[in-house]
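Quick sanity check, C2H2-type domain-containing protein:
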Amino acid sequence: MRTHTGEKPYRCENCSRQFSELESLKKHMRTHTGEKPYRCENCSRQFSELGSLKIHMRTHTGEKPYRCEECSRQFSQLCNLKNHKQTHTGEKPYRCEECSRQFSQLCNLKNHKQTHTGEKPYRCEECKGQFSHLSDLRKHMRTHTGEKPYKCENCGKQFGRIDVLKTHMRTHTGEKPYKCEQCSRQFSKLSNLKTHMHTHRGETLQV
C-alpha cells in the first residue's frame, strides 16, 4: 500500500535516501558497500543485483529478446532498443549548447561536449596517455595487452580494433569504397586513395 500512500519509512544512513520497502533499501546499500553477491558462472564477473546478472548473461547466451518492429534488428536490453528506434524516427532531443549539434542519445551528447572542453578524464596507467572517451582508452589498452578480440571468419586473422577488421574484410570481399574523382580508380583503404591522389598533383611523398 505504500506505493499508493508514498510512505517511505526506510532511510539510508549514508545518503538519507528513503525507500518504501526494506528490500529496496538493502539493494541500495550495495551502492555504498560495493557488495556484489551475484556472480556470472561463465566469466566470474559480479553484480550487485540479480536483474543485472540476468541481463549480463545474454552476452554469453546471445539472447536478444527485444526486436525493432521497423527493421527486425534485435537487442539484449530494452534501453538499447529504445535508443535504436530513434535512428528510424530521426528524433534528436539532446542539443549541444556550444554548437547546437543534436544527438539521439544523452551519452553521445556527453561524449561530444568533451570536444569543446578538451577534457580527457580517462588515463592509461601504463603510459599515462589520456583520452576523452572510455571506449578510446579501452581500444588503446589493447596496444599494451596485445588483446585481439575481433577475428576474421574467413582466414582466422585477429585484430585489436573492429574498424581494422572491417578494412581487412575487403581483402576477401573485394570491396573498394574509396574512388578517385580524377580517374575513377577505386581503393579498399582511404590511406591508399590519399597516396594515389599525389600522382595527380605531381607530388612526391617523403618516406
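Posting the structure with no commentary besides this: The longest strand covers residues 10-11.
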